[in-house]
């Protein structure tokens, strides 16, 4: 594939200014590809194509069942190239291959899931409304919201594309997708797969580029009806401000600092396993990572000991090699950010239990050891801010009340998890968390069927499931007067 072109209006075209940027393989810092850099002119062309496809084209007028056929072909196209796409994702992002294979499988699954919902839309698109006045009858009708802009991050590149593209297409919208400049490649393959699946021209446009040069003009474009963003809080805030001018509908999935509350009656092996998965999976570059662990005092020291033992066993290296469980961070900036966070942990008086350094023997690549800090003060920077790396902070607690208070004492509210053998307690604590995604006796498993999104500064709106489809639907009421009696207000 020629990565130096943009996918606009069903064609691969040169960027107007002819610019490009580089994406790197973080395992050895080598150049992976030069990629077309969209600027405002290209974004305008892409939005015009999407607008035209929506206003004049066949896509929004097709039945849900007809759109489902194309969505399933896209799913099959992804599945047919699962290995190739997963390897590309590893090289662009750094994650271990089994995780990338999982991502790509879920990406295909997301298109299948929304194909099913597109079909169901044919029967549940219109719903009658009971009105108190029987001279009238009404229906509520769901219609596609129009042209959507999607701006996505680099941690799950193709999967994050599917969480936005699949429901938008299912709803009948057209879309302009800007992938992250750190990991743009699989999104470009998605464009090609959609093309081959017979998606009409202009319905999906893929325009890689830098945030300020391509993301900003997309978020400011007056012809966009809806903006969907996943990424950092500062950029989310900027996008919300841009959307405010034209009252664009927005959904935001932002950062987190998710707590994991472990009671003393929890199974130690299970607790350690889920803590590891909650923070070291995907190098900890996970918005919902359970990066703040609260452990009931009785279990605190035994748990820290086991956690450190297991964390030290995690195999680190190039994600394409066998048996690697932790790959490099996505780029130099993220690597520097994580090492700075570790330095701040030391400064703020946290106790380093394991890790904290670049692993020995890996001279190139953005590798950081799995890192555990204990006794982290509640006002420490690392306890409060998203690190987005393999660094977990642990604190002891003495009562359920204290654990819940500390868990909720955050400006974020994306995920939260609780572990105990006392299931009633788990259910109770789960209901007290101020977070959009709560796990009981596990952390992180994510299902296409269930709503995903955050409270507080972690975002606005929900993706996935039927909530994800509703992001791309407007609601219209149609009310009819069918009484034989004249209205009789002005004319008696
Ligand atoms: P970012 O939020 O700046 O980037 C995400 C996307 O927004 C990218 O596609 C980028 O090109 C785009 N973007 C950047 N500036 C923009 C602008 N002015 N207007 C429109 N779009 C713009 O995140 P970045 O810099 O990649 O990572 C920084 C930190 O953000 C990470 O260290 C992590 O803490 C957090 N983050 C959170 C994610 C999540 O899933 N919640 C994902 C990625 C990063
Ligand atoms: Mg890259």
Task: Tell me what the structure shows.
- The chain folds into 2 domains: 6-254 and 458-478, Aldehyde Dehydrogenase, Chain A, domain 1 (3-Layer(aba) Sandwich); 259-440, Aldehyde Dehydrogenase, Chain A, domain 2 (3-Layer(aba) Sandwich), CATH 3.40.309.
- The strands form 6 sheets. The protein has a 7-stranded mixed sheet with strand order 14-15-16-13-12-18-19, sandwiched between helices. It has a 6-stranded mixed sheet with strand order 9-8-7-10-11-21, with helices on both faces. It has a 3-stranded antiparallel sheet with strand order 5-6-22.
- α2 (64-80) packs antiparallel against α4 (97-124), α4 (97-124) runs parallel beside α5 and α9 packs across α10.
- It is α/β, with parallel strands linked by helices and 492 residues long.
- It has helices at 40-55, 64-80, 82-93, 97-124, 157-171, 185-196, 211-220, 233-245, 268-280, 297-312, 332-347, 381-384, 400-408, 423-432, 465-470; strands at residues 6-8, 11-13, 20-25, 30-36, 126-129, 136-144, 147-151, 174-178, 204-206, 226-230, 249-253, 259-262, 292-296, 351-354, 371-374, 391-397, 412-413, 415-419, 437-440, 455-456, 459-460, 473-481.
- It starts with 5 loop residues before the first strand and ends in an 11-residue tail after the last strand.
- It is built from 15 helices and 22 strands.
- 53% of the residues are buried.
- The structure holds 1,4-dihydronicotinamide adenine dinucleotide and magnesium ion.
- 1,4-dihydronicotinamide adenine dinucleotide is lined by residues 151-155, 178, 180-181, 211-212, 215-216, 219, 230-232, 235, 238-239, 253-255, 287, 334, 337, 386, 388.
């Amino acid at each position: 594939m020629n990565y130096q072109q943009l996918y606009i209006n069903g064609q691969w075209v040169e960027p107007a200014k002819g610019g490009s940027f580089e994406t790197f393989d973080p395992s050895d810092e080598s150049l992976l590809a030069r990629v077309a850099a969209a600027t405002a002119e290209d974004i305008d062309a892409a939005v015009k194509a999407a607008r035209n496809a929506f206003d004049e084209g066949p896509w929004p007028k097709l039945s849900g069942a007809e759109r489902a056929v194309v969505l399933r072909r896209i799913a099959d196209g992804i599945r047919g190239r699962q290995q190739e796409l997963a390897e590309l994702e590893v090289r662009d992002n750094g994650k271990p291959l089994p995780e990338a294979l999982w991502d790509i499988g879920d990406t295909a699954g997301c298109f299948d899931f929304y194909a099913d919902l597109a079909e169901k839309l044919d029967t549940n698109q219109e719903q009658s409304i009971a009105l108190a006045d029987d001279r009238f009858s009404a229906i509520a009708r769901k219609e596609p919201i129009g042209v959507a802009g999607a701006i996505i991050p680099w941690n799950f590149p193709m999967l994050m594309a599917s969480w936005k593209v699949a429901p938008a297409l299912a709803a009948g919208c057209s879309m302009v997708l800007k992938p992250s400049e750190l990991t743009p490649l699989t999104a470009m393959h998605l464009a090609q797969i959609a093309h081959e699946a017979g998606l009409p021209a202009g319905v999906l446009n893929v325009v890689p580029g830098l945030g300020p040069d391509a993301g900003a003009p997309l978020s400011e474009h007056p012809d966009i009806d809806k903006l969907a963003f996943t990424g950092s809080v500062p950029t989310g805030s900027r996008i919300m401000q841009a959307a405010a001018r034209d009252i664009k509908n927005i959904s935001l999935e932002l950062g987190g600092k998710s707590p994991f509350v472990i009671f003393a009656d929890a199974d130690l092996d299970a607790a350690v396993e889920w803590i590891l998965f909650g923070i070291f999976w995907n190098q900890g570059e996970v918005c919902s990572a359970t990066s703040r662990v609260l452990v009931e005092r009785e279990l605190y020291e035994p748990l820290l000991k086991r956690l450190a033992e297991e964390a030290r066993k995690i195999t680190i290296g190039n994600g394409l090699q066998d048996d690697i469980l932790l790959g490099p961070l996505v780029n130099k900036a993220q690597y520097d950010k994580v090492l700075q966070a570790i330095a701040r942990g030391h400064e703020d008086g946290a106790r380093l239990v394991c890790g904290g350094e670049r692993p020995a023997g890996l001279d190139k690549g953005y590798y950081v050891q799995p890192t555990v800090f204990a006794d982290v003060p509640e006002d420490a920077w690392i306890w409060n801010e998203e690190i987005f790396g393999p660094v977990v902070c642990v604190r002891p607690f003495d009562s359920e009340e204290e654990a819940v208070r500390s868990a909720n004492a955050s400006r974020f509210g994306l995920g939260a998890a609780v572990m105990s053998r006392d299931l009633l307690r788990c259910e109770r604590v789960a209901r007290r968390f101020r977070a959009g995604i709560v796990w009981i006796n596990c952390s992180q498993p994510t299902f296409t069927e269930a709503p995903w999104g955050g409270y507080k500064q972690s975002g606005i709106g929900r993706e996935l499931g039927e909530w994800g489809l509703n992001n791309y639907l407007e609601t219209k009421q149609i009310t009819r007067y069918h009484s034989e009696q004249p209205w009789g207000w002005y004319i008696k």
